[in-house]
Amino acid sequence: QFRKKRLRFGRSRIHEWGLFAMEPIAADEMVIEYVGQNIRQVVADMREKRYVQEGIGSSYLFRVDHDTIIDATKCGNLARFINHCCT
């Protein structure tokens, strides 16, 4: 069963911005769904270069499998700010 977790968006020491858990979350619990545009690798490569040219400091490209990437850079949700931390 899915229920929304309490999360906080804020500055991160890992990568500019981060999403922080405000409650304990077990390893098998869903936190939030990563959403954005599903694109192919070749499109992701082009977008990454364009984002650099446009001065976008961070891009949020999440690899799903060999040729599927979710681009949350311009149309994602807070999940794009999740950084890995063991604590």
Termini separation: 24 Å
CATH class label: Mainly Beta
Low-confidence stretches: none
Here the CATH topology equals: Beta-clip-like
- Strand residue percentage: 25-35%
Give the CATH H-level superfamily: SET domain
Count of DSSP-assigned helices: 1
Largest sheet: 3 strands, antiparallel
Features of this protein?
Beta-clip-like, 87 residues, two-stranded antiparallel sheet, single chain, alpha+beta, 1 helix, globular, 3-stranded antiparallel beta sheet, 25% strand
Any chance you could write out the topology, listing elements then pairs?
Layout: E1 7-11, E2 17-21, E3 37-39, H1 41-53, E4 61-65, E5 68-71
Antiparallel strand pairs: 1-2, 3-5, 4-5
What is this structure, in a nutshell?
The protein has one domain (7-81): Beta-clip-like (Beta Complex), CATH 2.170.270.10.
Report on this structure.
The chain has one domain (7-81): Beta Complex (Beta-clip-like), CATH 2.170.270. The strands form two sheets. It has a three-stranded antiparallel sheet, with helices on one face. Strands 1-2 form a two-stranded antiparallel sheet. The chain is built from one helix and five strands, in the order E-E-E-H-E-E. With 87 residues, it is an alpha+beta fold. The mean pLDDT is 86. A hairpin with a 5-residue loop joins strand 1 and strand 2.
